[in-house]
Input
Amino acid sequence: MYQKSVLSNGLRIVTEELPYFHAAAVGVWLNVGSRDETAPENGLTHFLEHMAFKGTPRRTVLDIAREIDQLGGMCNAFTTKEQTCFYGRVLGERLPRLVDLLGDLVLRSFLAAGDLERERQVILEEIYAQEDDPEELVQVHFARNFWGDNPFGRPILGEAEHIARVSREELLTYRRAAYRPADTVVAAAGRVRHQELVDLVAAGFQDFADGVPHRGREAVNTHPGVYALARDLEQVNFCLGAPGVAAGDGRRYAATMLQLILGGNMSSRLFQVIREHLGLAYAIQSYVQFFSDAGLVGISAGVSPKNLGAVMDAIRQELKQFTQEKVSEAELTAAREHLRGSIILAAEDCEHRMLRLAKHELHFGRYLPLEEVIGGMLKVSAAEILELARELLRPSAWGVALLGPVDNTGDYGLG
Output
């Protein structure tokens, strides 16, 4: 059963009680991510996420680690372009301890100078590891160029040169500005009682108040083209992307169906043509991303340099076909069944249901029942997919990021 409450400070609490579950998952979702940073603040949202686990007035860093272990479940956090989430999953009977811990981490972390210096080095190692991971780095390279000089294009981790100089005062100032109860959702699913959680959150977050006026988010622009970054690698990793649809756009179901048929699983067109028929790559996949006011449809893979041209030609052909012919009824039926099964199976996990609760509240202001989501997917027609493909898959709209033994003289685009 779904329920929602709003505290006097504006913090929202959404729950889905599933009494047949033994576990409960809880997440504190702050509607702030890397796109909410100014250029001098880039990386601070992620830095704060790390520092939350380094001690509070009530818990040392060792106390936090021990308590997480003693809860017998898990507790973690992540930062995206638009949100920061602190979350955990425990047995339902241990929910009060988890909520108390999450509130302490989010609101009362010390940001002590010594801890900051140690964690700074951890984050720098994370940045260096990303530099050594071609699959991740090509995504960062794509975002920088496709979204351009905009918070949306900056790396979530920040730049090493800037992270090396971040001060405690900068982090404290940014936390006061960025962490706001009116922009916070506490979501829980599984063995949880709504009023009990409301009481726990009200007690743990009673001192949480908006410090400064809310910042507006800068609108995004795109910069199509080819962005080649030469690296001495055995493969060329590439990422292709074009503007998609926003989370609240009614065409999100059609966009999901489109990408699934294009390259979302092993029976998809791109996988079958490029992996199975031509043998040009070990794997290739498409994906969609939905943000509050923007979206992305993308394709990524890693290939031998000698196969890059043939792979790009094959992708061009598949995209062209999508804009000229309706997908077959067999493809559409298979995609519907795949999505229906995936949605239902994911609902067996209380953590996944918690994620859905929070994202629905942040994007729609309400909960979308499983039946509504599945119904929306099943209603998508071949005509709707064709219409959306003609809008999204225009060659002139795409950006192409390449990482490996490449240069800027090759014709790697989709035109």
